[in-house]
Amino acid sequence: MFEQIDQKKALLDAKRPLPKYTVKSLREKLLLEWTYHSNAIEGNTLTINETKVVLGGITVGGKTLREHLEVLNHRDAIHFIEDIVQMDEPLSEWQIKNLHRLVLKGIDDEYAGVYRDQQVFISGAKHIPPAPFLIKEEMEQLMGWYEQPETTKIHPVARGAMLHAIFVRIHPFIDGNGRTSRLLLNLELMKEGFPPIVIKVENRLAYYEALDKAHTEKQYNEFIKLITKEVDSSLELYLSAVNNAK
């Protein structure tokens, strides 16, 4: 499943260091698209051009304060995971809570970075997240799984996809779980030298269905394949940009 993307990543690695301004423009492109699509999946109505305007510090008329904050918060959360990658810090529950705190900052400060104390349901999904009193234990189990030697041997794309899926199954926060899970997935990819991916809003149905299958049947292959396809797209984007830069 991973042979093609491993070959493309090897090609990209062989071209490092990548051209400075090409990397800068790719980063800006992906930051915008990642922010737009991740928010749109959750119901944010800002268009991609309106998202760009908000990132530039301009308010869009007729849109809610929450929608503006979701854009700015997501940008700050991306900066946070970029710092983690740069400092080569291991993943921890503290980081996950801080990441979520950034996602909900100014939107719901009471629950930003705090595990939920209420039962929640995922609309349209068969899976029902665990009861609040189980969350601490479930998150400890997730971190235990992540840190065990067998997990470190899993291909980084599969590991990132499974981290995302297991996190969403637990649904540890009242709100912002989807955005946080996609940030965690890209954190895992970026730590291994892969470019971040964008799960597009138009693929939302396939994304949700693959996630629900992972949760109800413990079958991760479909979800891993979906993520692998997006990794391939991001690698293609980087390779074409680097090749055209010459």
From TrEMBL:
Every Fido domain range: 91-229
**GO MF term set:** ATP binding
Could you list the residue ranges forming a coiled coil in this record?
Answer: none
The residues that the entry says bind ATP are D175, G176, N177, G178, R179, T180, S181, R182, Y207, Y208
Q: PROSITE patterns, per this entry?
A: FIDO
Question: Does the entry feature the keyword Repeat, yes or no?
Answer: no
Q: What is this protein called?
A: Huntingtin interacting protein E-like protein
